[in-house]
Amino acid sequence: METGLEKRSDQELLELARTDSQAFAALYSRYYRHLRAYAASFLKDADLADDVAEETFARLTSRLGWLAVARRPLAPWLFRVAYNLAMDELRRRSHSQTLMEETAVAGTDPDETIQDIQSHVQEIRNAMSALPPFEYACVTLRFMEDRTTAEIARQLGCTPRQVTLALNYAYKALRRTLSDISPDSRSMIER
User: Fold this and answer.
1) Distance between CA 153 and CA 160 in Å, rounded?
2) What is the pLDDT of residues 129-184, one digit of tens each?
3) Distance (Å, rounded) from C-alpha 25 to C-alpha 20?
4) What is the C-alpha to C-alpha distance for residues 115 and 135, in angstroms, rounded to an integer?
5) How far is C-alpha 51 from the geometric centre of its chain's CA atoms?
6) Which CATH code fits 5-87?
């Protein structure tokens, strides 16, 4: 169904989107798949590219007024936000990969690591139970049921980006809580 909004300029849609959700939907339709493809070119991961595109539009909602008043071109702003989000994700991924490589270089025996984790099971359970319910559910689905971000989002009725943010929060909280146990056990938690 064509509403006529598709033919409007980005600037007109920005101004209308402040009060008209259909105008925002037209912008979303115009740019979403381009932003997703752009993010995927960096991330090489469809779920993360979806997260980046969704987060880009989430940020657009808070900047609609500014972009409309400033009369700045929308496309460069959207692609800059998507680029920054993708680079943040790559930095986070690089940090996790570095930690895993350091553990491998240290010559850690996998059997010793499993034994070390087993010796801290109660501490890990306590740390998990201290997480907020949503974060607990995300971590459990991710690691106990090996679900993807998109699958978790569908099951919990939220966006993939919300799942990603919840997992990041949970990982930080677990690292903080479990910081006094051995480095080998922590590296397993950080994955």
Assistant:
1) 5
2) 888 888 888 888 887 777 888 888 888 888 888 888 888 888 888 888 887 765 54
3) 9
4) 26
5) 5
6) 1.10.1740.10
